[in-house]
Amino acid sequence: MLIKIQIVIGTLSVLLLFITFELIRKERLREEYSILWIFTGMAIFIVSLWPEFLLSQFFARITGLYYLSAVVLIVFLFLLLIVLHFSVVISDMKQMNRNLAQRQALLQLELDSLQKQLSPPARESP
Amino acid sequence: MKCEAKTLAIVPAYNEEGSVGGVVKEIRRAYPLANILVINDGSTDLTSEKARQSGGVVLDLPFNLGIGGAMQAGYLYAYEKGYEIAIQVDGDGQHDPGEIPKLIGALMEKKTDMVIGSRFMGKTTYQGSIMRKMGIFVLSRVISTLMGQLITDPTSGFRASNRKAIRLFAFKYPQDYPEPEVMVLFKKSGLTVCEVPVEMKPRYSGESSITKIRSVYYMVKVLLAVFVDIFKEKPSLERRMTDVD
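YS: structure for the whole thing
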């Protein structure tokens, strides 16, 4: 039973690590985020290799987690924090995006009016 | 009267090709002293062309920012070009430009930083759904309590602002439901506001962003936004304000 879960989790973590590396290679993911995901992938991978660790007395004693469901809860909270972090990042980017759009429009208007001033009023002689 | 104060009429318009031209012409007729800036908020129709044809200066935003982002772009323009007064007039034609002199007159006389044109002051012919009237009434009570002053029409977008308010808006303008949220921003920044009664017309074209069914949901969201605003930090613009001016 445990070996099946090990294979599934192990495969998933390798896949996660592979996708993370691919994203970094293609420069689609910034380093500050890639480190987070590499650590997450490695942690899951280690757990899949050595699941007894999570069930061991030693682990339970140092963390106080006697039930595996508690581990799941912690992982869930961790993911929740990541999502919250991304919401903050998206909000920041939205604001920067808005400021850029406003600035672009104002500059375009300025440029157009300057061009109009510079170009001689051709074919409009009274 | 100091009516020669440099005045800008800001007309936000999103897909209002049917009405924006008429609004620009009416503003010109009603208050010839004002320069007119139409904010084309990423329209997919001929809003920009129609506004240009009727003689307005058009600021074309590269994509739709929503009313908050669009208005702020207008206030940025007003601030950087040194306008003393900015008037907000919706591009859908529901605000009667004939009332602009009244708003500006009140801004001069009452010495407040902003004047709101209210549909609900004095005798009014405003025809809106009961749900919407009730929603605005609840919101009006909440905003009035916060301000410590009666604000009868906090959702009205028909407003005149002085230089101090323009400067504030250029740096900080609420994005989600700007009209009522501006009230909280004003309270925090120590700016003053008053209302004058105005008539509003039914819309020329297009649809109000608040439909009957959604009006309750809208009010809940507005109230939430206002309550969140109460806990926000006071905008710290003093340094920036002094070194730009």
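YS: worth flagging: Chain B has nine helices and seven strands.
IM: good catch. Also Chain B has one domain: 7-244.
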